[in-house]
Amino acid sequence: MMKRREFITALGGAALPWPLAARAEHMERMRRIGVMPPGTENDSDTQARLAAFRLALERLGWKEGHNIRFEYRWTSGNPELIRRHAAELVASAPDLLVTGITPAVQALKRETATIPIVFANVADPVGSGLVPSLAKPRANVTGFTAVEYTIVGKWLELLKELAPETARWH
């Protein structure tokens, strides 16, 4: 299985300095990634994010159809589809599961405690109970969020400092 931190690095698009021997070892068999994207199949933003994800993995030596295969399940945010597709993906025993919405991570987490689940840009993964902390996520769930909620209070302080006349938002 791919290591959690290695995969998160690929998600961020950074290069990972794997030794050549380790990289060759990873390429010996076809790896499978189950993906439940947050958008619809025809959504251009979702397709652009998936293309960037595939490109980042390719730069690390993971080429679609060569040593990695993606299995997509499109849910359009439908709770019933999310539950059903989570069960299907886990039953297919992929090497890794990837998603970007809280309900999908929750559904995948209910279905497996062994297959690694990586989330991207989930709002408040700690508050929603997906992980105990971003620094030490534990278990089989990890990922990243675009907002670090512990600094939101500081944002409000800065806003008050920059615009002291601001009393409330409309």
**Number of structurally distinct domains:** 1
How do the strands of the widest beta sheet line up side by side?
Answer: 2-1-3-4-5
Q: Which CATH top level class fits?
A: Alpha Beta
- Tell me, rounded to a whole number, the average pLDDT: 83
Quote the beta fraction.
5-15%
At the fourth CATH level, what is the homologous superfamily?
Response regulator
How widely separated are the two ends? 49 Å
Task: Estimate the global geometry from the Cα principal axes.
Answer: globular
Supply the helix-strand structural class.
alpha/beta
CATH architecture: 3-Layer(aba) Sandwich
Rg measurement, Å: 18 Å
Helical run tally: 6
Describe the protein's architecture and organization.
There is one protein chain. This protein is an alpha/beta fold. It has one domain: Response regulator (Rossmann fold, 3-Layer(aba) Sandwich). Helix content is 39%, strand content 14%. The protein contains six helices and five strands; from the N terminus they run H-H-E-H-E-H-E-H-E-E-H. A five-stranded parallel β-sheet has the order 2-1-3-4-5, with helices on both faces. Helix 4 crosses helix 5. The radius of gyration is 18 Å and the shape is globular. The termini are far apart. About 4% of the residues have low confidence.
